[in-house]
């Protein structure tokens, strides 16, 4: 039996390939040595003569001699040659760090989006947005979030924002971006209580809890949304159908000349959403396509 690696903690894995007819017998042979056993077909639809992979997992290192004898004995009774088994130690993996590596910092317009694992300082002239990928949508990696941030970057050059709303706030990244850019009050609303909690947490860690207030709301139903308006800027990164559905409410809560940034829609849904807002008297000011997604900026 070949052995790879050794350590005082982690999982040991023994694996080998045998014909389908012998799988059950070898699974039984592994039971005294392994806490978990799995088997799977090597090639799909290979029939009764196809090879299957049998693997067993154990927290402690199995007794090599006893394991080898058990496999030889099982092979003899199955009328096949003993399988070439490998005993491998699978070292513990830091899944949290590996997930962090999948989210390197990104520069999106004037914004520098980064996670708590990033040690480098926010580049000079950039606005840092500290958001980890977690239980609420919006880490800056999705095309719809990127489109919104690029829209904000453009709006900062040509508009004055005094009051804003982030409808469907998710992680709160858009509300935080608006607050950091304009130093104005931003109401963040979401139907999901977890998103409200995460938005509050992220606003605090980004130093804008005095500007960002997160509340639960099904669309514009929460009276807090009406009391906070009207808004110079509304961001809504949700989905095409609910975007079209809230068009009348959005228009009613915008100041004259106010803008709404619409995201979460595919390019194939653009006309459906844009027409819903045109019907409320808004006009298209900018579109930002990213892959199959598109972000729309419309003005009252």
Element layout with pairings:
Elements: E1 2-4, E2 11-19, H1 23-30, E3 36-41, E4 51-58, H2 64-78, E5 86-90, H3 95-101, E6 106-108, E7 111-114, E8 127-130, H4 143-158, E9 164-167, H5 173-182, E10 186-190, H6 193-205, E11 212-216, H7 223-228, E12 231-237, H8 240-245, H9 247-253, E13 254-266, H10 270-278, E14 283-290, E15 293-299
Parallel strand pairs: 1-5, 7-8, 9-10, 9-12, 10-11, 12-13
Antiparallel strand pairs: 2-4, 2-5, 3-4, 6-7, 13-15, 14-15
Short description:
The chain is built from ten helices and 15 strands. With 300 residues, it is of the alpha/beta class. The protein has two domains: 89 residues, 2-Layer Sandwich (Alpha-Beta Plaits), CATH 3.30.70; 158 residues, Rossmann fold.
Characterise this structure.
With 300 residues, this protein is an alpha/beta fold. The protein has ten helices and 15 strands. Strand 10, helix 6 and strand 11 form a beta-alpha-beta unit. It is elongated. It starts with a strand and ends with a strand. Mean pLDDT is 89; it is low at 4-8.
């Amino acid at each position: 039996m070949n052995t790879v690696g050794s350590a005082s903690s982690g999982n040991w894995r023994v694996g080998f390939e045998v014909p389908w007819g012998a799988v059950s017998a070898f699974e039984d042979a592994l039971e005294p040595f392994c806490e978990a056993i799995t088997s799977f077909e090597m090639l799909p639809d290979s029939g009764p003569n196809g090879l299957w992979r049998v693997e067993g997992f154990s927290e402690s290192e199995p007794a090599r001699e006893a394991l080898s004898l058990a496999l030889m004995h099982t092979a003899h009774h199955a009328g096949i040659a003993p399988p070439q088994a490998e005993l491998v130690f699978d070292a513990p993996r830091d899944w949290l760090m590996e997930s962090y590596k999948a989210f390197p910092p990104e520069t999106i317009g004037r914004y520098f989006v980064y996670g708590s694992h990033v040690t480098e300082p926010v580049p000079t002239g950039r606005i840092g947005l500290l958001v980890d990928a977690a239980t609420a949508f919006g880490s800056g990696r999705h095309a719809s979030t990127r489109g919104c941030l690029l829209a904000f970057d453009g709006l900062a050059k040509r508009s004055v924002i005094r009051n804003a709303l982030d409808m469907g706030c998710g992680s709160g990244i858009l509300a935080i971006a608006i607050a950091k850019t304009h130093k104005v009050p931003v109401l963040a609303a979401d139907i999901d209580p977890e998103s409200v909690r995460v938005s509050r947490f992220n606003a605090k860690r980004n130093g804008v809890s005095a500007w960002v207030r997160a509340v639960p709301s099904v669309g514009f139903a929460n009276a807090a949304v009406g009391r906070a308006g009207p808004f110079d800027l509304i961001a809504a990164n949700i989905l095409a159908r609910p975007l079209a559905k809230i068009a009348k409410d959005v228009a009613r809560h915008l100041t004259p000349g106010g803008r709404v940034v619409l995201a979460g829609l595919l390019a194939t849904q653009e006309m459906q959403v844009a027409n819903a807002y045109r019907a409320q008297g808004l006009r298209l000011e900018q579109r930002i396509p990213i892959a199959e997604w598109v972000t729309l900026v419309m003005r009252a």
